[in-house]
Amino acid sequence: MSRLGARMRASAAAAGERIPPWLSVTLGVVCTVVGAVLVLRPFASLALLVVAVVVGAVVLGVTELVGSRSPDRGDDPGAPRAPRWPHVARALVFLALAVAVVVWPAPSIVVVAVLVGVGLVVSGVLDGFEGVRSVGVDRWTRLALGVASVVLGVLALAWPDVTVLVVAVVFGVRVVVLGVRLVVAGVHRTRTQAGTARAVGPGSTSTAPDPSRPRRHGRVALVGAVLAVVAAGALAVVSVGLHRAAPQVDAFYDPPASVPGEPGRLLRAELFTREIPDGATAWRILYTTTRDEGEPAVASGIVVLPDALRDDAAPPVIAWAHGTTGSARGCAPSVLAEPFESGAFFLLDDVLAHGWALVATDYVGLGTDGPHPYLVGQGEARSVLDAVRAARELDGATLGEQTVVWGHSQGGHAALWTGAVAPEYAPDVPLAGVAALAPASDLTGLVSHLENVAGGSIFASFVVEAYDAIYPDSDAAGYVRPGARFVVREMASRCLSEPGALVSVAEALSMDQPLWTTDPTTGPLGERLAENVPTGPVAAPLLVAQGASDTLILPTAQEAYVGARCAAGQPVDYRTYQERDHVGLVQADSPLAPDLVRWTEARLAGEAPTPTCAAG
Asked: Does residue 371 have a cis bond before it (omega within 30 degrees)?
């Protein structure tokens, strides 16, 4: 876009010499208004983005055509006149860009981004050709601008959602600059013409042009072109770095050619050492499971055992259901650099110190082929239970029959569903207890509340991605504002712990319009969300914990959910923790940590629970 800025300045100067002053002022005012609105409200609407691109491209094309009629000798007045055809070709590129955006049926943001990227690449190539034909400083200026344009165009094509920000903000700024220059040029010419008219007559004098001015201007232009190359190169380096930092799965997660139809079978296992403390042995595992409607699937996970077992007995199992890490395949905790803390698990040392084994599913669709059942109860729960079954088949490891499920946030939702489906789906995995920590229990309330949460549209993107893939009848993407659909899709492709998530955060915070065009709690999507609210009875003792300062999972919503479960006859041990937010609730220094350990010890010891229901 720096290339566009330079071209706008040059074209505005040339056009200022050819078009009437009043037209220059009019075009300048239009550009200034459109550009300013786009900068101030970059995600206001797709229509506004389209209008800004069309107006900017038309003005650029027109000024290129007008400017091509003016002499262009660079910084050397004696140099031959530059050929017109590169100007004409650039004008045609910009005008074609404007026409393509207008005539494209229902243009999306990705269409706009791609067209702008193509325009930048083509214009950069023309600049390079023009530079080769030029001489002196002008040659290097045009070559540098051409390189910057091509680099920015390639980035636009490679990373379209970031291009939305570039187009909306940078393009908007450049259109404002062009508008101001056109206004100033028009006003200046009006005054100059008036002054010239007064000066014409007997005894009038003329001022000779300063011969050093073109040379100074050429040097300034070269400095600007070099800065444009540096800026484009920096963006390219950042882009490549962010893409390389995105977590990638390896061949371990590819299923073998022959996969058993029975769920809970171990397919593959290998030692796992990342972030595993001394005195413990861990494996990552690949196993069979099922999606909704009994569809076979493959999932992965981590198993950790203490090396020193108490009384040489098989250790009981803590089945951990992790919190949100993302919905893309590379977002599996076993793939991420922080396999436990990325999913908000901070109590591994406590688990091992008590002689318990940890079985932590990645869930189907994370690590393995998707879709990932984000906040889809059956898929999450089956991944948890089948991970425990598969872990029992590990060579050199023996697990006890007793299992307690822990889960936080998304994992709390999974834990509640695990408790509900276990008796029928996996009677061979008897549950001694279920602990749901800040669970996403009220899905309809949560999804409608996400717009009030800073960065909440990132979590909404995971919901849209999952429900669109798993429930085509819900048309989840159709509930999203058209101007935000592509951005939401790109947000869903990034993990929360990868550096590229900063782009998602910037996009989420930049949205100044509602994410939804239709209330997501109504219609087919609302029905699908409602059916994934965990209302099934949990036979095992149930603990629900909530941070009183949680702004994502609201305490009032959690209290209402627990109250409804109690009214339905479900015994619940409900505990709230003051001054604890969503993640702070499950950190190692939280008062919940010792309470959870003691509660788990009591369940494994067979002690009767003491439900409190909705009493905090």
From this structure: yes
